[in-house]
Design brief:
alpha/beta, 9-stranded mixed beta sheet, about 25% helix
Length: about 600
Amino acid sequence: MRLLPKDKKALLKAALGQIPADLAIVNAKVFNVFTGEILPAIVYVYDGFIAHVEYDDVDHVEDAKQIYDAQGQYLVPGLIDAHVHIESSMLTPVNFAKVVLPKGTTTVITDPHEIGNVFGARGIRYMHDCGMDVHMRQLIDVPSCVPSVPGLENAGADLDYSIIEELAQLPNVIGLAEVMDYLAVINGDERMMKILEVFEKNGLYIQGHAPFLSGRNLSAYLCGGPRTCHETRDTQEAINKYRAGMHIDMRDSSICRNVKEIFAGLKDFRYFDTLSICTDDRESDDLMSVGGINDVVRAAIKNGMDPRDAIKSATINTAREIHLENLGAIAPGYVADMITLPSLEDMKPSAVFTNGELVAQDDKLIVEIANKEFAIEQENSVNFKELTLEDFKIKAEGESCMVNVMAYDGKELSTTHLSVEELKVKDGYIDISDDPDLKYILVINRHGLDNKALRIVRDFGTTCGAVASTISHDAHNLTVVFDKLEDALIVVNQLKAVGGGMAASKDGKLLHCLPLPIGGLLSQKTAEELNDDVVKMKTALCSVGLDYMVNPLMRIVTAALPVVPDVKMSDLGLVDVNKKVIIPTFAE
């Protein structure tokens, strides 16, 4: 696939010097992603495309309508985020663009399956349409798994292959989003095979999601169609996948930072052509304070990657991964997305160009990005019947009982395992009051179905109070972790009233609520406005025990994600991720 100029003949004339270029960038040290060279050059741009790069006669500037002096700085291609959920920023696509553009991100490959799980195809169209005309490319991967694992959770929609095929025709669609139901691929599930076929016959790339897969399972997954993975977490896993020809997207998100471990495994390999970089899930305050994909590039460099290889992994490698032939390089015929950098290591752009237009300088946006309004933004997506304290108790018989418990593998890990524990019974209900590491976890379907599931979790991390969130990957039902029933009821009622978001309570009082009224995921506030709320929410979460986490907001969001091993919660109960079955409350 190529991005095409409006007038190819005019672009040819500009390349030949027969008509003036729109822009000439002079006094620049151009990074060539094909050779690895950094050379003085003049870059000529016409109608959003690079017409010519002059390496020989850099002292003579030919006719151009505008000249930009790079003042001896590096000029590199605009950065491309290989995989991101814009919803995780809690910003609309418009406000997301306003934050990431000054940081050098000119293209993102975004998977709107978060809002797709709430509103279905309407939500995906909303993210697509809202992300148009924002001075950057927000390319859409159509969600492959809504819900993430059919039969194990209930989302707000169920996208079959016919709907997915219809969405694939949207102009900014580039591929199929992360195929999280890896077991369905490996086992040749008919529904999944039809979905994969839609994108194979349309010549679009298929994005993978394959945590911990190896051996024959990995081979089967790759034979099934997905060729990429952003869920690689450790050194040996990275080695296995890279040797198998999988395109690895090194991830540093707001919750999972995997660049260090991945590059430790790959650093001695000769080629890095199938290595890219992504943010996956980054919140607005992280985007503002440390950056987006530029921060991940910075992390790769700090962990021993040559700056040129790191930048290549965030530009041309990603463009090739998504099958875009003329993006990610400073070369004739390529889209004129570029950034100037005083230092390759610091990765702090002094200027950002998209389509040959200067859009940001010195970390400030200098173009107007118009706000948009959509009817979907006014809908309340939090729908469930009123609860009472009785809904937060687990009935049991006898003086004690054997219970299946979801136990976390570590304080900052999202992986879990099944633990069978003997728990006390008091007045006919399970009693966890004598073990501070145990909490209740309740998942309430908020999409109009009258169902919920209540279980026990160990080592979640809170020490008291209640934490609730409608950001709950991927079905985004309302999840609450608590020890006292009264605190749980407070946060649940609060989120229902505001249309979703996050809330924390302690000792019978609401500590803070972060409202996210668009699908229970997004705010209409700008990043600066939202950041005040985010800081207060983090403070509240720290006061209930999550003070050890770099980003306490992210603790609860994957508790109900039934595609991350080994056990997770859903509105149907405790899920065995690998066996794809619901685990009963009580052990035999």
